[in-house]
Specification:
The complex is a heterodimer of chains A (294) and B (310).
Chain A (H helix, E strand, L loop, with lengths): L1 H40 L1 E2 L7 E2 L3 H7 L2 H33 L6 H13 L2 H11 L5 H6 L12 H27 L2 H9 L4 H29 L3 H6 L11 H11 L5 H29 L5
Antiparallel strand pairs in A: 1-2
Chain B lengths: L7 H44 L20 H8 L3 H33 L5 H13 L6 H8 L8 E3 L2 E3 L9 H5 L6 H12 L4 H8 L4 H12 L1 H17 L2 H6 L8 H11 L4 H21 L1 H12 L4
Antiparallel strand pairs in B: 1-2
The chains are: A mainly alpha (294), B mainly alpha (310).
Chain lengths: 294, 310
């Protein structure tokens, strides 16, 4: 009996030894950090003196801030609403094309994945140069637009670039999803006399739904937090036309001459709530739109 | 699931449509793939071309070809900017250290979640799943404070004793490494892997009197090679390209990583864009080489990401 108990204790200790590194990082940088972010969001904090309790003051500041309401919030939503559908569509079409046992598939797969291999900074630096006033893009098309210094174009260049860089990865996810659909399902449909269109609508689409949900969720969460590209390409400008919520958090916490850690934390909490709400709504919409379940 | 059979008239026009589509399908798809392929290659191609042209002749036609041809920009990157090799080194240190530690720690935790019984296991695993969904930007500021000055400046004073509340790692490579040494997705991926893994081998090893820890290092790790390489590649690529955290933590130019350095360099010497492009390709090259060497693993790692929901 005692040996049995001893064995159990040893087992438990071994278990904790194995998860210890993860547990330490998880508690420090997830659990504690989250609590601390919440706490900071109720304070005034400029790094120089200790945080001062400020109740909902920071939230009030965020929700009455012009830069937040007129630029960061609409820009972020615009970014998500344009980039997510387009990159999903592009990568889905590419995946269908790749799924057709065409020749040179491997070559295409490699080429499509290349933009994803490049770091966000490198690809941003390249695009800054491509879209410069005397840059390659203008030269090829005989234009003289200063793309990244124009309020009407800067944001769209960044969006286009992001669609360009992520479609390859998303295509591979969709492709593996398409190839995971059991061939027996298609055979059964053929025996039932279903034509190609019916097979597509009643087998391919429902079978791909979980992956579609996954891809959209991940893209939405990622797009809501877009930062690197904006930092490198426009620093939120021109005239704040590319300032997103994450960029605004960075600006308040690290860039402005008066550091506003509390206000930035409040905004990060607001952003998290927005992301949770959108993911939840999206789950309802995607699950609701299909009557087919597994 | 079974489709209702449409009326015959409907059917014929429908079948025509499908037949037509079947006929034009291949050329349409080839065109699509080719167009997107060209879009993917063009920016990188021009980067390569311009990095191989002298700065003075950057815009001398033809735009498409590196004439006159020179390696001068690549030489400049290394000879005139002593910081560049330093950035390369810093990036390598961070990416290599994080990769090794993360693969080890994720495998350990994954193995524990899959195989070992310990109190609160279910609870901790659920916490892990939730932390995977948490948007990273929420913890950005506290993370910065914990890595750096601490959440209480000067630490907590207990009589004579001062306990620091932060790691004091601002402007140190360790500050970038520390929070990345393990991540929720990696642990999850390894847990799923070990759950689907036959127990017999380990049991045989345990019978031989090997301890749990011994078994893990001598039997389990070697046979999970494929999965470990996949996780390693995914991690290396992510760390090599990481931007936001190093940007906030690393302050002096000699401690920059390559992406931060390139961005800083652009601010200082924006007229030398051909040199920046050459430097950019240096940043891309290692990942490109890894990609060509281990393409199979890269593709698999992405496929795994997709089935994460299942």
């Amino acid at each position: 009996m005692t040996t049995f108990r001893n064995k159990k204790i040893t087992e438990a200790l071994t278990g904790y030894l194995f998860v210890a590194p993860w547990l330490f990082i998880f508690f420090t940088f997830s659990v504690f950090s989250l609590g601390y972010a919440l706490y900071l969001s109720f304070t005034k904090y400029n790094l120089l003196s200790p945080p001062v309790w400020w109740g909902l003051g920071s939230y009030q500041r965020v929700l009455t801030d012009d830069l937040f309401w007129q630029k960061a919030l609409p820009n972020t939503f615009k970014y998500v609403l344009i980039v997510v559908p387009l990159q999903t569509l592009v990568s889905l079409i590419l995946a269908f094309a790749m799924d057709q046992k065409l020749r040179a598939r491997k070559l295409f797969r490699t080429i499509f994945y290349l933009p994803s291999v490049t770091s966000s900074v490198v690809i941003s630096l390249i695009f800054v140069w491509l879209f410069a006033p005397q840059g390659v893009f203008n030269q090829i098309f005989g234009l003289t637009i200063n793309w990244l210094d124009n309020v009407n174009t800067a944001f769209y260049v960044i969006m286009g670039m992001n669609i360009f860089t992520t479609s390859g990865t998303l295509m591979l996810i969709f492709l593996s999803g398409l190839q995971d659909i059991p061939t027996t399902l298609y055979e059964a449909a053929e025996i039932d006399g279903a034509d190609k269109l019916q097979t597509f609508m009643y087998i391919t689409v429902p079978m791909l739904r979980p992956i579609l949900f996954f891809v959209i969720t991940v893209s939405v969460i990622g797009c809501f937090q877009v930062f690197d590209q904006i930092f490198v390409m426009t620093s939120g400008g021109p005239l704040d036309s590319t300032t997103t919520i994450t960029y605004l958090i960075y600006k308040w916490a690290f860039r402005d001459t008066t550091v506003k850690m509390g206000q930035a934390s409040a905004l990060s909490v607001v952003l998290a709530l927005i992301i949770i709400a959108v993911t939840f709504i999206q789950r309802r919409v995607i699950e609701g739109s299909g009557s087919t379940t597994e | 699931m079974a489709a209702t059979s449409p009326s015959s008239r409907n059917r014929s026009s429908r079948e025509q449509l499908i037949d037509g589509w079947e006929r034009i399908k291949a050329p349409v798809f080839y065109t699509l793939l080719t167009v997107w392929g060209i879009i993917c290659l063009t920016p990188l191609y021009f980067t390569l071309v311009f990095s191989l042209k002298p700065i003075e002749n950057a815009y001398t036609p033809p735009l498409w070809l590196p004439t006159p041809f020179t390696f001068a920009n690549y030489q400049t990157v290394f000879s005139s900017f002593d910081l560049f090799p330093r950035w390369l080194l810093n990036s390598t240190i961070i990416a290599v250290v994080v990769t090794i530690l993360r693969v080890l720690f994720c495998a350990m935790a994954g193995y524990a979640f899959a195989r070992i019984e310990f109190p609160f296991k279910k609870f901790l695993f659920n916490a892990l799943l939730i932390s995977m969904m948490m948007p990273g930007v929420v913890t950005l500021i506290p993370k910065f404070l914990i890595i750096g000055p601490g959440f209480i400046r000067g630490g907590i004073h207990l009589g004579e004793l001062t306990i620091p509340t932060g790691f004091g790692l601002i402007d140190k490579l360790g500050g970038v490494i520390l929070p990345s040494v393990v991540d929720a997705f990696g642990v999850f991926m390894m847990t799923q892997f070990y759950k689907s893994f036959p127990k017999e081998l380990e049991e045989a090893a345990t019978m031989d009197g090997s301890s749990r820890i011994g078994t893990f290092f001598r039997v389990v790790l070697p046979i999970s090679q494929t999965q470990l390489i996949t996780l390693a590649l995914l991690t290396f690529q992510g760390e090599w390209n990481r931007f936001m955290e190093p940007l906030l933590i690393l302050r002096s130019p000699e401690n920059f990583t390559l992406p931060i350095g390139l961005q800083w360099f652009r601010g200082e010497y924006y007229t030398l864009y051909s040199v920046i492009l050459a430097g950019s390709l240096f940043n891309t090259l290692p990942i490109l080489i890894l990609f060509f060497l281990f393409q199979r693993y890269f593709i698999q790692s992405i496929a795994t990401t997709g089935s994460k929901e299942g």
